[in-house]
TrEMBL record:
<dbReference type="InterPro" id="IPR039426">
    <property type="entry name" value="TonB-dep_rcpt-like"/>
</dbReference>
<dbReference type="Pfam" id="PF07715">
    <property type="entry name" value="Plug"/>
</dbReference>
<dbReference type="InterPro" id="IPR036942">
    <property type="entry name" value="Beta-barrel_TonB_sf"/>
</dbReference>
<dbReference type="Pfam" id="PF13715">
    <property type="entry name" value="CarbopepD_reg_2"/>
</dbReference>
<keyword id="KW-0998">Cell outer membrane</keyword>
<keyword id="KW-0472">Membrane</keyword>
<dbReference type="InterPro" id="IPR000531">
    <property type="entry name" value="Beta-barrel_TonB"/>
</dbReference>
<keyword id="KW-0408">Iron</keyword>
<dbReference type="InterPro" id="IPR008969">
    <property type="entry name" value="CarboxyPept-like_regulatory"/>
</dbReference>
<feature type="domain" description="TonB-dependent receptor plug">
    <location>
        <begin position="120"/>
        <end position="235"/>
    </location>
</feature>
<keyword id="KW-0798">TonB box</keyword>
<dbReference type="InterPro" id="IPR037066">
    <property type="entry name" value="Plug_dom_sf"/>
</dbReference>
<protein>
    <submittedName>
        <fullName>TonB-dependent receptor</fullName>
    </submittedName>
</protein>
<feature type="domain" description="TonB-dependent receptor-like beta-barrel">
    <location>
        <begin position="339"/>
        <end position="883"/>
    </location>
</feature>
<keyword id="KW-0675">Receptor</keyword>
<keyword id="KW-0812">Transmembrane</keyword>
<keyword id="KW-0813">Transport</keyword>
Amino acid sequence: MNRLFNLLLLIIITLLSISGFSQSTISGNVVDSNGNSLEGVSIALNPSKYKGYTNVNGFFEIQNILDGNYSISISYMGLKPINESIKVLGKNLSLSFVLQENLLNLQTVVVTGTFDPRTQLESTTAISILRQKDIKQTYPQGTAGLLQNVPGTFTDASAGEVYTRVYTRGISASAEDDMGWYYVSLQEDGLPVSLIQHSYYSPDLFHRVDLTTKKLEAIRGGSAAITSLNAPGGIYNFISHDVSNKFGGELQLSAGAQGGNNALYRVDTNIGGPLGNNWYFNAGGHYRKDDGARDNEFTFSDGGQFKFNVIKNTNKGYFKLYGKLLDDKTNRYTGVAATNWDNPKAAFGQDFNSTSLLMPSFNGSIPDGRNLNMSNSFNPAQGVHAKDLAFGLDFNHDLGNRLTLKNNFKFSAKNANWQTSISNAFVSLNNPLAYFISGADFPVGQVVFKDARSGNEVARLDNSGILSGNPAQYLTAGSLPNDAIMGTSAWYKDMSADEWMNEFTLQKKWDNHDFSTGFVAAHSSTSLFTQGSFAYVTYEPNPRMLQVTLENPGQPVLSLSDENGLSNYGGLFYVNANAKVNQIAAFANDHWKVSDKIHLDLGLRFENVAHNGSKDRFAPAGSPGGIDGDITTAYDKSVNAPTGETDDFKYNYTYLSYSAGINYKFNDNAALFSRFSKGNKAPELNYYFNNFSNVPINQKGEIQKILQAELGIKLDSERASFTGTAFWSQLKNIGIANFEFDGDDNSIFYTPIQFNTSETIGFEWESIYKPFDYLAFKFNGVIQNPKALEWNIYDAAGSVDTSDDSIIDYSGNILPFNPKLMFNLSTEFEKDKISAFLKWQYMGNRQGNVANGFELAAYSIFNLGTGYKISNHLSANILVTNLFNSEGLANFFGANSFGANANGATPDFVSANPDASFVVFPVLRRRALLSLNYSF
């Protein structure tokens, strides 16, 4: 027995000894191309579960590794990954790695616009990535301002953070100023920010960029037709920070100057790290107070957001709980007057750089047309108050047998309240509109204008002759600036939406196929109330509110406005509507690995969009004395209120989209891809809200059809990278209706819809050349030929009367607001503790309307930035945007008259009115920002 015991003991000791000698440790360090140690680099051995991360000194160590052959993967955001084969044979290994910059992120795995994540080089889409470093080089002026750095993306952020336009490849016709994201999907972490759009309710209202964003992935056209909800024009997906294996974060304090005395103060933060037992968290947000880029007497923006996520990694995947609370006020500018069609110059004492023409702050009260016993407060300083409470659950689970389940669910409660100006047109004192728009029956005679704040008389005139074509006559020494008032409306909108959306995906992998299928279900319950009242305002760069009365001798004084200058309460606009939107989509996609070099993508998407809602009919309410019963107060005589009748709508839009792509990978650094897609765009709710005023909604809208073809190349090397994509796009069934004003009865209406077709051919590119580790040159842009292939415009001849209406054919003209050339050219320097960049943004000529009657000239914007690393944790940066104060014009609103639109400025109109003034939107003036960043 003793011998047997000794033998067993010897065997055990021998086995333990062998086991001990068959385990090893791998250690080493990782640096970048400048020799800087990299913290948080992921080190993984495959096939195994051995994994580690570098510490603050770039050092890593993985212990107790069994003998065998492994592939070691070294990966770090923004740098090229390394994959090498190693052999472990009973001894410790010491390794060193140098990670080169991933110049255009071609080796980075992308998750947007694809069902199975893969590197950008291997994808069959035109995709661009902006990292946090790129985001920090952009002045914090809103989402659209950032997206102008994405090649081929047209953005118009001249109005500020909201009321912006974003589109690509000429897919733009319905992307109007008041809902400029019509064809594209603005997303956060893979789901849309908002399910719906309608006038003045676009997703940019509920999105802000700050340090919580890890990167942006942008898809232009292509696979967006089968991977997004009703957004075939592109996807802009802002991806948040997620797992961090070490507690840390960043705090950024910023202060800016805009023009003379306009300031910006902002604080951003983001922190994250492990919570233990494979739990991780990330949280952050921002708060800012901004006087605005133009001169107005109130704070332009005030507010911020908070975002968080909590992630649990499991042996089979992960699940993530995330949320956002946005509470933010901002505003938007309304254009500047200009003259000289060939070389526009600011008119009427205004300035392209500083003039805002927004009404000043005051506390008004306007009867609520929905319930005349109640009123709505109105103060232009409130601007646009957006609130968004959102939370969601995202999980990924490996079911075994190479089958994976993914699900992403989000709920949000949104509200947007507008209290601001709409329009700022010139209205001459010789124009009867200046008086009759008050709602008074016959406001002719002696009209008195007083400063609404001080009560002092500004001007007194006799307008008796205007109805016979004679000018108004001043009766005292006082006069109004430019002998005019501003044609503007006190624009009150209250909009809300409760939404949920869920995307479910099941993915199965075989040797040569990655097959994905699933469905998306989404619901939005929304309400809209719009009320427009006239406001008496001086027409000058710093407008004043005017209290207006009619004071004819021997007659009672008739108030054309209230004490704040508000007039024609609720008489210009009235919309009260609600709707439920349900979207269901089912999709299937196969990624087929035909060979090591050839990959095919084949995808289908069946989608159904259901609209169910109602809209009030309305009419002026009240007695001859108005809401207050006083016949001497004319301003409350025309309040629009519901009649009790409603116009209901209930329509379904069903369509099938498809997309097919192919990628030929020459080697690890070069690939060719091609894709053809047929997408669809169902109408948004503005179709019902805008186009049917007191008439039955007796027909559904048209589904727009989008065809796109593209051929691209992707090239990567140690010192240079390049991607280029030739594309063709065609957009059909474009419904066009113009906003018109009838001077005969002071009513506003939309013209009958015309359906049109556009076509664009072009080439997009993105490139970077890095001759030295510390110096880089970047160049991206698009050259294109946008055409209005078949295009008709309804001409209402300035009145509701249809007897003099006509249809004008503009087929073959250049598509408006699409530059033939647009690019970004920049140089970046980073060495030791110093960094700097200089960027040139060029916007080519654009037609201001489909009539091609007015052309917006090309302009250039130069941005400059420099930074200094004070210590390992503290850095300072200076950013100057629009360095040379360019006065480029970004947008055109047509003739400078109340109710005019861009399409009215035809070649004949311009020729017949060479001295007429018109409304343009200049780019925002020079702004400088100083930021201190503390990272830990």
